[in-house]
Design brief:
Elements lengths: L3 E7 L8 E7 L8 E7 L6 H12 L3 H14 L1 E8 H17 L5 E6 L1
Antiparallel strand pairs: 1-2, 3-4, 3-5
Helix pairs in contact: 1-2
């Protein structure tokens, strides 16, 4: 589908029966950019705590959480979700706050996809 819609109309006032063309621009809404939320590995945060964070703040089941936690542990970081800016920002803040309140140095960041 093109961004222009062509409307054909007969001009009844014209004796020769000319047809005029009217163009109407349709605006397309642009999708907002998405942001990846990443967990970073450290040598102090217990693996069980990372699993708890993934289940609690990202709605993952236990098996998914363990798999992502192991990826973070082995590779140094892992993407835990992709969200609109405000949601990603909120999740990062929630994870960081929860980690600090539990005295863990877990780092959570976000970057544009």
């Amino acid at each position: 589908m093109t961004p222009f819609e062509i409307i054909m109309s007969d001009n009844n006032d014209d004796p020769e029966g000319d047809t005029s063309v009217v163009t109407k621009t349709k605006s397309k809404t642009k999708r907002p950019p998405l942001y990846k939320v990443l967990l970073l590995n450290d040598d102090y945060t217990p693996m069980e705590f990372v699993v708890l964070v993934l289940e609690r703040f990202f709605g993952l089941n236990h098996a998914q959480s363990v798999e992502i936690m192991l990826t973070v542990h082995k590779k140094g970081l892992a993407v835990v979700g992709v969200f609109a800016f405000e949601i990603a920002e909120t999740k990062v803040a929630q994870v960081m706050d929860f980690a600090r309140r539990n005295q863990h140095p877990l780092q959570c960041t976000m970057e544009k996809e």
